[in-house]
Amino acid sequence: WVAFKAFSLAKSLSTGNSKSFFVQ
């Protein structure tokens, strides 16, 4: 799940939406 979290964080940063990372 670590890789998934890292991917989600990178995706969130790229979209400028950090909330989506914390939700997941």
UniProtKB/TrEMBL annotation:
One GO cellular component this record assigns the protein to is:
ribosome
Alphabetical UniProt keywords: Chloroplast, Plastid, Ribonucleoprotein, Ribosomal protein
For this entry, the protein name equals Ribosomal protein L32
In the UniProt record, what gene is named as encoding this protein? rpl32
